[in-house]
Amino acid sequence: MPAWVIDEYGRNDVLRFTDSALTPSVNFSSEVVIKVHATSLNPIDISMRGGYGSSVLKLRREPLSLGQRGSEFPVILGRDVSGVVVDCGSGVSLVNPGDEVWAAVPPWKQGSLAEFVILNENEVSVKPRSLSHAQAASIPYVASTAWSALVHAGGLNPDNTANKRVLIIGASGGVGTFSVQLLKAWGAHVTATCSTDAETLVRSLGADDVVDYRTGDSERQLQSREKFDVILDNVGGDTEKWALGLLRPWTGAKFITLVTPFIMNTDTLGLVDGLLLSGMTLHTKAITNVCRGVFYRWGIYAPDGSALDQIRELVDSGKILPVVESQFPFSEVPEAFLKVEGGHARGKTVITLI
Ligand code: NDP
Predict the structure, then answer these.
(1) 107 lines ligand 1 (CB under 6 A)
(2) What angle do CA 233, 79, 337 make, to 5 degrees?
(3) Which terminus of the chain has a lower count of CB atoms within 10 Å, N or C?
(4) What distance in Å separates the CA atoms of residue 305 and residue 30, rounded to the nearest whole number?
(5) From CA 201, how far away is CA 18, in angstroms rounded?
(6) In angstroms, what is the span from residue 114 Cα to ligand 1's centroid?
(7) Full-prediction pTM beyond 0.95?
């Protein structure tokens, strides 16, 4: 099948178009083969092109996706899909051939920069009727990540979020633009940080209060605000040194960061030592902060078809809009990578195949 593959890790020149990538076929009863109509890029695609997570992801890859000599190559990147089901295993009951579906493809599986992708049915969800495939492909990976962070790590849900004060650090990219809308749909008061030129976008998505981190000291600007119940950090680095102090202590307030050293540790130290170091780091930060009256959590993407089912309802009722910044044809995948690698995202970069 046509696909963009990499045969080694590196910069953009490792991306190679082929007409003869292995077409996936159903091997297990729970599998679903999807014809990809559109996909989108995420920062993880840039990182994985360079080898990010290669050791830990190789271990999670299914044996059938490994190359002949146990090598992971050729690897197909691309973590989002909107498309049409073409084949299902005998045990699949949630979708049928011909259904329009969307999904976030786990990083340990072959990705969606290809004509077909294969997933388990619990990773797949019926696509929102109100969106084109290109629009739908902009949502699943960032939505699944935001859901994992805000719902599973942050404890938020449609019934307990109204009037909670939530701070989104880095609100203008893929995860940020989705998170602002999800939280507003659930009734939160949302404060967002972003660059000057992103303020109009972030406010149009519903943010109640916007702090421009480029025109001043975010920490000082945020300290003058009422304290927060939940903070989602999409930026990382030094942020957590000051942001934890913005939480309302002894009320169950939570800080969740998406920027964790977990994969980097396993890349540099190997699986066992990397896992140990990550566990110790998280444990130390969690204990230190719980003594100060706030919870410290890591947000990690997880495939979740049922979360996408709930998100579909919010999309089809107009409460969550796709934020597509740029769109590229399948022939221009390397150009799309360069766009995302350049940073300063304002929503998502989508690639259309059909
Ligand atoms: P994007 O690249 O789409 O967006 C990042 C946004 O942050 C850009 O709009 C950028 O715009 C803005 N930004 C950069 N620096 C700052 C700053 N100091 N303050 C406020 N905004 C800033 O990334 P995603 O939204 O897709 O992902 C966010 C982060 O989460 C990434 O680091 C990603 O790797 C990580 N991630 C982690 C996952 C996990 O499983 N743990 C899963 C998915 C993502 P500008 O520079 O113009 O301000």
Answers:
(1) no
(2) 85
(3) C
(4) 13
(5) 38
(6) 26
(7) yes
Look at strands 324-329 and 295-298 and give their pairing. unpaired
Q: Structure tokens of 212?
A: 């421009």
User: Which residue type, as a one-letter code, is found at position 271?
Assistant: L
Structure tokens, 63: 């044996």
Query: Do 74 and 93 touch, CB atoms closer than 8 A?
Result: no
Spatial separation of the C-alpha atoms in residues 177 and 42, rounded to whole Å: 13
Kindly state the helix (H) or strand (E) to which residue 126 belongs, with its residue range. strand 124-126
Per-residue pLDDT of the chain (354 residues; tens, 9 = 90+): 999 999 999 999 999 999 999 999 999 999 999 999 999 999 999 999 999 998 888 777 754 444 445 688 999 999 999 999 999 999 999 999 999 999 999 999 999 999 999 999 999 999 999 999 999 999 999 999 999 999 999 999 999 999 999 999 999 999 999 999 999 999 999 999 999 999 999 999 999 999 999 998 899 999 999 999 999 999 999 999 999 999 999 999 999 999 999 999 999 998 899 999 999 999 999 999 999 999 999 999 999 999 999 999 999 999 999 999 999 999 999 999 999 999 999 999 999 999
* Nearest CA-CA partner of 219 in 235, 203, 204: 235
Going by CA atoms, what residue is nearest to atom 15 of ligand 1? 235
| Nearest of 160, 116, 176 to residue 345 by alpha carbon | 176
Q: Which long-range contacts (CB under 8 A, 24 or more apart) does 16-24 make?
A: 16/74, 17/331, 17/333, 18/74, 21/74, 21/76, 21/114, 23/115, 23/116, 24/110, 24/116, 24/117, 24/118
Q: Which residues pair with 326 in a beta bridge?
A: 349
Both structure tokens of 341: 């690698």
CA distances from 234 to 43, 256, 285 (A): 12, 9, 18
Residue 43, ligand 1, Cβ within 6 A: yes
Amino acid identity at 168: I
